[in-house]
Amino acid sequence: MNASDLNALRLPGQPHLHWRGAELWMDGVRLSDLATRFGTPLFVYSKASMLSALAAYQRAFAGRKARVCYAMKANSSLGLLNVFHQAGCGFDIVSGGELERALAVGAPPASIIFSGVGKSRDEMRRALQVGIGCFNVESVGELRALNEVAQSLDRVAPVSLRVNPDVDAQTHPYISTGLKGNKFGIAHRDALAVYQLAASLPGLKVVGIDCHIGSQITIVGPYLDAMDRVLDLVQAIEAAGIPIEHIDFGGGLGIQYQDESPPGADDVWAQLFARMDARGFGQRAVMIEPGRSLVGNAGVCLTQVMYLKPGEQKNFCIVDAAMSELPRPALYQAYHHIVPLQQLAANAQGQMWDVVGPVCESGDWIGRDRALAVQDGDVLAVLSAGAYCMSMASNYNTRPRPAEVLVDGDTARLIRPRETLAQVLAGETI
Ligand code: LLP
Predict the structure, then answer these.
(1) Structural domain boundaries of the chain?
(2) Has residue 197 got a pLDDT over 50?
(3) Best CA proximity match to 93, nearest among 73, 63, 121
(4) CB neighbours (10 Å) of residue 363?
(5) How far apart are the CA of 337 and the centre of ligand 1, in A?
(6) Which atom of ligand 1 is closest in space to residue 210's alpha carbon?
(7) Which residues, including other chains, have CB under 8 Å from residue 152's CB and lie 6 or more apart?
């Protein structure tokens, strides 16, 4: 095998990465320069890539009453949130912590929607005090709690119910959320009765309906089925005298990690709006909560090869990133493409490697059976690392979390310094 055969030189789903000669660049910045300047492991994000992913939604939404609320669980770093805030997005949050992040970048509270099955009363209180746009409520218990909290503050909470449409998003079981067996949402057959309850509680005002069927969805069919199921409910709820101002259709659109070919956001929404138009709901306000499709392919994780450990059955390439910052392979057997920042000469010998981290677990792998021509000290880029990597990073093995850099054209700005060990240990006592 020589380097030109190496699968590793492909850049799936990455219009903002390119080879200049033998070197990998993001937009106008050479990635090896960032590894030298900021160290590894390092997350690097392309602002242009985030904005072009957003533009696909905006094209479909032109002329419609529609708002993108970025689901910040995918990546909640303030530097990225600010890009979406400046571009006119609202935010979908799932905790009091995420609420403070949205407020920290100056998001108008009315553009914030609060999702999640387990909001605490303290979180509800703070969200009501600042005046968020909508609570997406997932159970009768939560509905009653929110009513009580709102009444105790002399406020009225704007609510949507998250309904479970019972459609199969055909994605990984851990990230499928719209089936009967999932913990999420209110069952389709119970929804009307729960809406009637919501409408009767004095601390609540029904403003919408919400659904989210899963993540990394790569086909349109489940979305169309879910839209039909939601519109059926809207008809029934409005026939019972409860107006539904907006339809929140969640997130979930997939990205290309390897060989997937998910539809574009503009394509999906052209089809969904056609369905809404055909059923007479074309004028209804729409909200969506995309996460991964806005940031997933905008980010890479740079990691340095520490040791090469050829073995009897497997060759291990030990790098300085691990499941602590790249948890998706360990959690979902997820594939992330891996490329060296520098292509070796055309006659370099490649070998098969398992790329693994320093964490003491066999589950700590980043890529298995990868054809790579690598040497000690090389820096690799783990692709499609913008979503659900840094936001899920942990301090497992007492590893400080990496730094993050935002690339804007030919400039690179540190948006989060590398965590220090002093910060990791702060607050603990013997
Ligand atoms: N809205 C709700 C209510 C959600 O639960 C989620 C994701 C989203 C929106 C955003 O979905 P997206 O557009 O990003 O697919 N850690 C997993 C993904 C978990 C998704 C959880 N919910 C992974 O790394 O694949």
Answers:
(1) 3-46+296-425, 48-294
(2) yes
(3) 73
(4) 12
(5) 20
(6) 3
(7) none
* Cα 252 to middle of ligand 1, angstroms: 6
- For 255, the enclosing helix (H) or strand (E) is none
What is the number of H-type helices and E-type strands within the chain?
Answer: 12, 21
* Nearest-atom index, ligand 1, CA of 172: 25
Positions marked catalytic: 360
328 lines ligand 1 (CB under 6 A): yes
Q: What is the mean pLDDT of the chain?
A: 95
| Nearest atom in ligand 1 to 388's CA | 24
Query: With contact defined as beta carbons under 8 Å apart, do 74 and 387 qualify?
Result: yes
What are the phi and psi torsion angles at 202 (to 5°)?
Answer: -70, -20
Cβ–ligand 1 contact at 212 (below 6 Å): yes
Whether 74 lines ligand 1, by a CB cut-off of 6 Å, is: yes
pLDDT tens for residues 129-171?
A: 999 999 999 999 999 999 999 999 999 999 999 999 888 777 7
Helix (H) / strand (E) containing 22: none
User: Would you say residue 5 has pLDDT above 90?
Assistant: no
Residue 7 reports pLDDT greater than 60: no
Averaged pLDDT, 11-33 = 96
Q: Which residues pair with 425 in a beta bridge?
A: none
Instruction: Output the pLDDT for position 39.
Output: 98
Class of domain 48-294: alpha beta
Q: Which two tokens stand for residue 206?
A: 């029904």
Evaluate whether the domain defined by 3-46+296-425 bears CATH number 2.40.37.10. Answer: yes
**Average pLDDT of span 74-92:** 98
